[in-house]
Amino acid sequence: MLLTTLIVAVCHCLTAVAQQTPPTLEVIRNNITNAVVPGYIYLTPSGIPFSGPYVFALNGTTVFNGAGKLSGTIHDFQPCVYQKKQRFCAWQGSTAYGYGSGQAVILDDHFRVIKALPGTDYHEFKIVQALDSEGQYSDIAHVTEYKQVRRDLSAFGVVPDNGNTSWVVDCHFRAVDLSTNAIIFEWSSLDHVPLSEGLVQPTGGINGRTKANAWDYFHLNSVTRAEGGYLISSRHTSTIYLVSSKDGSIVWRLGGKKSDFKLKGFSFDSQHDVRTVSSKGNLLTLSLFDNAYNTFVQPPKGLSSGKIIKLNKATKTARLVQQFDSPSREVGNPSGDGGSVQLLPKGNVFIGWGSDAQVTEHTADGRLVYAARFGVSGSSANSYRAFKAPFTGIKK
After folding, report:
1. Distance (Å, whole) CA 302 – CA 348
2. Nearest to 148 by CA among 210, 103, 199
């Protein structure tokens, strides 16, 4: 009996050890001699043991394991330029109900934090370079913050706990001059977008009855410069907003309940990672990850995909230029959270599939040339975004 108990205990220990292994990248397709752009894959697998920032070679080899090097949950790990030098950017903190509280960090080539922006959410952290009117170079950070504020939500059927006022999330975006920490632009969803545009009603963990469960009616998930203003993506309104950089007013909406454009022959829903591809005259080309699924709204409206779309501002129409499908499309595997679309040299497109733990690369005409899955056997993993870029290593 004692021997049997000992054997069982040893087996349990070995199983536990086997499960506590770092994530791996399993390559499914790699036409590297044909059309795949050289580079390394940046991921932040979460929801599994040894989560954190990782860099993988295209053959699946782990070239950097950053588990434990930053505290809390890690998102958006990528190379960036700061003070004209190649650095790394990431976000670290805690998350709940789809948003976070923590700090955006810039790291040197020893992976030491050299700049931090506290009080931020993980949905956007990008550094863009700009020249002021006097020709001075500056680094501008785009960051987001989710703030819980009191608001009467009785019109939406919310009865707050203990008779107190109900709560809603006010999504903020800030552009910050990193040399002075001055906020050069700030935008608030509640100042410009009415609650009635929300497609996700107060429910579950975002029922609005307490501060911890504030209703996330907007859910800002990306910001990028465009048309002299900013493009803001809202998951919970399924809308892309162009906002003025002068006063934050909404110039136009694409998608959602109040679209100013007619979508011709396509749709998108609960999108992520909206970026400007090109702008010429009346034509504006965008890339986005179309989740077609929101975990707060059942069932999925379709299968997730990467999309390139073109807007004609004169005719107020939008058309699909190209769609990039998942290799698991035949089994119907939508991504309910996260996702990213990155344009590469030669016109290739690199896609991170968010909660569907895979990355793919496609040629400009949509042909799949690279696919890999990541995670730990028997566990579900996700990476909010994925990036492909050069990697020169971390110094000791």
Report:
1. 24
2. 210
Question: pTM for the whole thing?
Answer: 0.93
Residue 2: its pLDDT value, please? 44
Three-state SS at 11: helix
292, 305 Cβ separation under 8 angstroms: yes
Query: Which class for 325: exposed (0-12), middle (13-18), buried (19 or more C-beta within 10 A)?
Result: middle
- Summarised one tens digit per residue, pLDDT across range 11-54 is 444 344 445 789 999 999 887 767 999 999 999 999 888 999 99
- b/e burial code for range 288-320 (CB count within 10 A of at least 16 → b): bbbbbbbbbbeebbebbbbbbbbbbbeeeebeb
311 Cβ partners below 8 Å, 6+ apart?
Answer: 254, 261, 283, 284, 285, 286, 317, 318
| 343 contacts: CB under 8 Å, gap ≥ 6 | 275, 277, 287, 349, 350
Cβ neighbours of residue 251 under 8 Å, at least 6 residues apart? Answer: 227, 229, 242, 243, 244
Q: Which residues contact 206 (CB under 8 A, 6 or more apart)?
A: 97, 98, 169, 200, 213, 214, 215, 216, 296
Report pLDDT digits (tens) over 75-107: 999 999 999 999 999 999 999 999 999 999 999
Residue 387 to residue 278: CA distance in whole angstroms: 20
| Phi, psi values for residue 186, rounded to 5° | -140, 140
CA-CA-CA-CA dihedral for 310, 220, 334, 347, to nearest 10: 40
pLDDT of residue 329: 59
DSSP per-residue letters across 214-256: -B-SS-EEEEEEETTEEEEEETTTTEEEEE-TTT--EEEEEES
Residue with tokens 């580079």: 39
What percent of the chain clears pLDDT 70, i.e. is strictly above it? 93
Query: Cα separation of 368 and 131, whole Å?
Result: 39
pLDDT tens for 197-226 read: 999 999 999 999 999 999 999 999 999 999
**Strand pairing partners for 103?**
92, 118
Task: Report which residue type is found at 193.
Answer: V
